């Protein structure tokens, strides 16, 4: 084991250039924690928010990154054998404790999920948090059923594309939005049945396809489009508020009776590692390995390209999941 490692450090809120690669001590494992050699990690919108200083969570200086994939080096509590392939996510990673933007990460054992896969690490690194959020939004948030119709608002985001892949695998009819006509191909490649160009108000177009409205919807754009998404949803249908791509976090002057249509249910979803069962992760990776499922990776970066990766995430110039290999 080396004594030092490379890690991305954020001293305080700032632009992508605020992310600095530094040498720092490799964390020391202790009971209840797992030391992991990181091979790849995905980028997430919440890490952009953290870098920008939005919200009240987290502290500085900090190694960002709410997820990482790699192999176990040491688990003093005996939770995992050395060499086990694992994903670590949430549990304060990258916010209140140092996260996955590093060559090694020390994660709470409760935030670590084992798996086995022969896939390349750049593919594996895209999966954990994306799958956790997409799976939870469908099952816990919407409670979507085979044969139902599902609207994904913000479809070319990594969560949107993953949700489409899961929904199609479960036999749903999927509608998904994008503001950019040029990104429609990415949605069609993910199996989306109806691509809708998002002008800000799409409820009328959705109801031209399904006059009673869709059975369920996953809202990823945020509060700016939430009311319109609710209006595109059928009576007894469910809208799950999951994402905030538009970076507007609250609804001003929220009056529920005016905002929520009669009989439409509004829920929300945000999950932890415990919300991604190991068997769900393993089944998804197996499906990818067998060719039955495609991981919607937008672009892969080297560790030294972390600033450019964050700039691309901020610009929204890439559709799909951004992944950094270590």
Automatic annotation (TrEMBL):
SMART domains: PKS_ER. It comes from the Bacteria. Its EC number is 1.1.1.1. Residues 14-324 form the Enoyl reductase (ER) domain. GO terms for molecular function: alcohol dehydrogenase (NAD+) activity; NADPH binding; oxidoreductase activity, acting on NAD(P)H. The keyword Oxidoreductase applies. The keyword Iron does not apply. Keywords: NADP, Oxidoreductase. This is Alcohol dehydrogenase.
């Amino acid at each position: 084991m080396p004594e030092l490692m490379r890690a991305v450090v954020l001293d305080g809120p700032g632009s992508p250039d605020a992310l600095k690669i530094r040498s720092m001590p490799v964390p020391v494992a202790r009971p209840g924690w797992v030391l992991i050699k990181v091979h790849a990690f995905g980028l997430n919108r919440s890490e952009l928010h953290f870098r920008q200083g939005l919200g009240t969570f987290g502290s500085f200086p900090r190694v960002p990154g709410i997820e990482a994939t790699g192999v176990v080096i040491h688990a003093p509590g005996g939770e995992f054998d050395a060499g086990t392939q694992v994903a670590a996510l949430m549990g304060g990673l990258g916010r209140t404790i140092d996260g996955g933007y590093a060559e090694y990460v020390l994660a709470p054992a409760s935030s670590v999920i084992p798996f086995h896969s022969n896939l390349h690490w750049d593919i594996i690194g895209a999966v954990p948090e994306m799958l956790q959020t997409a799976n939870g939004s469908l099952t816990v948030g919407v409670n979507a059923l085979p044969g139902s119709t599902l609207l994904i608002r913000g479809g070319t985001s990594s969560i949107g594309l993953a949700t489409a892949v899961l929904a199609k695998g479960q036999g749903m009819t999927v509608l998904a939005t994008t503001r950019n006509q040029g990104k429609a191909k990415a949605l069609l490649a993910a199996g989306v049945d109806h691509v809708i160009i998002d002008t800000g108000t799409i409820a009328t177009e959705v109801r031209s396809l399904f006059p009673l409205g869709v059975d369920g919807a996953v809202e990823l754009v945020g509060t700016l489009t939430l009311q319109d998404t609710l209006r595109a949803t059928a009576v007894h249908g469910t809208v799950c508020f999951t994402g905030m791509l538009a970076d507007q976090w609250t609804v001003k002057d929220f009056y529920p009776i005016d905002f929520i249509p009669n009989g439409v249910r509004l829920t929300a979803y945000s999950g932890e590692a415990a919300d991604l069962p190991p068997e769900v992760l393993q089944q998804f990776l197996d499906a990818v390995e067998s060719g039955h499922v495609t991981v919607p990776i937008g672009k892969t970066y080297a560790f030294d390209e972390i600033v450019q990766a964050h700039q691309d995430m901020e610009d929204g110039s890439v559709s799909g999941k951004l992944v950094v290999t270590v």
